[in-house]
Amino acid sequence: MHVPDGFFNAAVSVSAGAVAAAGVAVCLRGARRELDDRTAPMAGLVAAFIFAVQMLNFPVAAGTSGHLLGGALAAILVGPYTGVLCMAVVLLVQGVFFADGGLTALGVNITIMGIVTVLVGWGVFRLVTQLVRGKGGVTAAAFLASLLSVPAAALVFTLLFWIGGTAPIEVSAVAAAMGGVHVLIGVGEGLITAFTVGAVLAVRPDLVYGARGLAAPLVLRGPDGVTTVEPAARPVAAGKALRPFLLGGVGLTLLLAGVVSFFASSSPDGLEAVAENKGFIGQATEHVMSWSPLGDYGEVGGIPVGVAGVIGVGVVLLVAGAVAHAARARGQAPAAGDDKVKV
Amino acid sequence: MGAGHHHQLYLPGASAVHRLPPQCKLLAVFAFAVVVVATPRERFWAFGLYALLLAAVAWAARVPPGHVLRRMAIELPFVLFAFLIPVIGLGERTTVLGLSLSVPGLWAAWNILAKATLGVVASILLAATTEPRVILLGAQRLRVPSLLVQIAMFMLRYLDVILDEMRRMRVARESRGFEARDVRQLPAVARSAGALFIRSYERGERVHLAMLSRGYSGRMPMLGEVSASAAQWGVALLLPVSALAVLGLSL
Question: Where does the chain cross the membrane (chain A) (predicted)?
Fold first, then answer.
């Protein structure tokens, strides 16, 4: 899935590069909060682990095998900030040292496979763990999170391709094909992520970042019958810290959508001509709802370029809203836990 | 990084390209890729000249063509996709060898093939002539955040250790009769992945403590400053500047 050079036009490559750089910059600060001066060795070793685990082939069905993307797994095991950093470094190393993925497409690759998979994976994971408590909840959440993160990345790829791709392809067909294939890949990703998280949870539950709230408080019983309860180690408060990340992300996406759709509309390609002929927003939105590969040629592809930007921002807002909700819920969770400990 | 841990792509050598400071090479390759991507796809001969430029660099660096060709297999999935575009593309159609192909689709396929291939070859030449550790020093000189460079350094340094650990676990699994046939074997593979994570994480903790005991305070000491003279910058920028000249001529 590493995008090579020449796949996207210059405007999308540069905008995605800006998004990736901003995301990585925020995560560098956030990871310092998660790991302080351990950041460099820990994130480096986890990045090496992600690189290794991406080479681990697992059987999907008779004869075929798949491999892990690892974004959701990284987010659940080491936290979202460190997760994005690790994925970004893995992609950087693959691009520069292994010629895997184009240098000008580095921003696109980091945005899609690093930031989107981690954000979607972490958002879904937090939502599900809020609803279902306990170890079973963590495993189920890990499955759903990584299952959804893969098609989400594929759809963002399709969206970028629609805005600034260099090929005249029916976008709904690409979206359907990419989405369909990646749901299947996502099931594999989900299964192996859930089993892996379960395995770590069984041996070293304290190492699973996403399950830090689960640790039971330490109860000390003294010789004279005095019982003291040590509160469980509290996860790093990320409620407020996440806000600039989200705001920055939304702002940059707006910029991306606005600037890029402007560039895209000035480039002479097949989509534009069709858009001029058949661009009815009302009809177009109807067709967006039915992502059918058999939809009329042209009309789905002919959605005015501005609508693409709006849809893009909508998707990001949904994801951001999910993450913000999860973060807020998470800020309150330890407080409730403390009360129980005092009682 | 101990001896014998060079990555397959790096070819030790002492050519003029090998001796250039890493930051010059990084910037040159990156600028070259940008120029290639910005070239209009109708200018066939410009892409031919770019390929000649890269061939000249490969000749100067004494990188054998076979080494580059073998590594180019990495772009195969996208080449397959590029061949699909004319079949499923939109727009006016033409008939080639009995197949109905889209004309804009053919252009798009050519665009992706040409630019991706040039980009991959440029990256391969960079990786073949520069040690990974030195590339990172160059990145640091180019003001890439030092924490990011440190993370990448640790990753490269321990990559072979982690990969070896994974290999040992696979040998252990297989010597006990394990064979991954279908989904039912997934839990066993995943448990190995979980064990690998715990081992990596704990190794990271040990490495951090070892660093602390040697006086680590958040910054890595710079060993062997890599500085570039104006002449070296000039030599390195020959590649993107001549590519830019080609682009200027073609417009």
Answer: 6-28, 40-62, 68-93, 105-125, 137-163, 244-264, 303-324
B64 CB within 8 Å of a chain A CB? no
Within this chain, do residues B207 and B129 fall inside the same structural domain, yes or no?
no
CA distance A113 to A111: 6
Q: Phi/psi at B145 (nearest 5 deg)?
A: -50, 135
Could B91 and A204 be called an inter-chain contact, meaning their C-beta atoms sit closer than 8 Å?
no
| pTM of the entire predicted model | 0.76
Nearest chain A residue to B77, by CA: A1
Q: Per-residue pLDDT tens for B163-198?
A: 999 999 989 999 998 887 777 778 888 888 899 999
Domain coverage including residue B157 = 145-213
Pick the CATH number of A10-342 from 2.60.120.620, 1.10.260.40, 3.40.50.1010, 1.10.1760.20: 1.10.1760.20
* ipTM of this complex prediction, to 2 decimal places: 0.87
Tell me, yes or no, whether B207 and B237 share the same domain.
Answer: no
CB contact under 8 A, A297 and B90: yes
Residue A313 scores a pLDDT above 70: no
Mutate to test the interface with B, among A42, A97, A181 (most CBs of B within 10 A): A97
- Say if residue B201 is in the same domain as residue B243: no
